[in-house]
């Protein structure tokens, strides 16, 4: 495996790659990791389909980078809008060489519901699940399509035993960290199961932990926790470093046959027992 690690950047892990002719969909390109993925993948020649919660936000992000980028509106909290976005992508008539499910929210201080479901689970997981299911034929149409589910080491905070299906609407209580962990565990589990279903085809599915990135996603943390962030800043990665692992898994030729794995710091990580 290439000598990449937690300090590697998205530019470094894609150095020397010519992605011309490839089509990559990245959700959440308006800030943080998604914005860096948009920039670097377009820099390497890929046609990036970049989504934002509004078309205007996606247009601004795509217009800010050199290269080919197509903006798309995608509000992951609106399942009908997710379906509409998938339809627009399908209408482009192009294969998807990679589908990177990156967008997300974290640690909402109070219980919020989307169609009766806790919002972090709806946005981080279910919205992406619908998108992947509706676009899987586009991924399989590529010579070697890849689905990259952005998970997190926070999946360890999920309820003991895994997904508590009897509490998806907060019926038995709500804890921000647990809810976030549940959504990220679900993303990883879907990648594992999708890899099984894609076995025997050129397409792959993997999950990634990008690392601790102090982007806008931390805005919902309690004030006292945000006040402590500068003190632990040495543990955090930059957006360029956070984008490295998803970029690596989505594009590096050495990973063409690799599926059903969990990556962190640009390397395969030991899976949690619940993911096996």
Give an overview of the whole structure.
With 276 residues, the chain is α/β, with parallel strands linked by helices. Helix content is 37%, strand content 14%. It has 9 helices and 10 strands. The strands form 2 sheets. An 8-stranded mixed sheet has the order 3-2-1-4-7-8-9-10, sandwiched between helices. Strands 5-6 form a two-stranded antiparallel sheet. The longest helix has 23 residues.
Strand content: 5-15%
| Total count of strands | 10
- Specify the number of helices: 9
Order of helices and strands: HEHEHEHEEEHEHEHHHEE
Distance between the termini: 23 Å
Biggest sheet strand line-up:
3-2-1-4-7-8-9-10
Uncertain runs are none
Mean pLDDT: 91
Radius of gyration using CA atoms only: 17 Å
State the shape. globular
Largest sheet: 8 strands, mixed
Summarize the amount of helix as a percent range. Answer: 25-40%
Task: Tell me the structural class.
Answer: alpha/beta
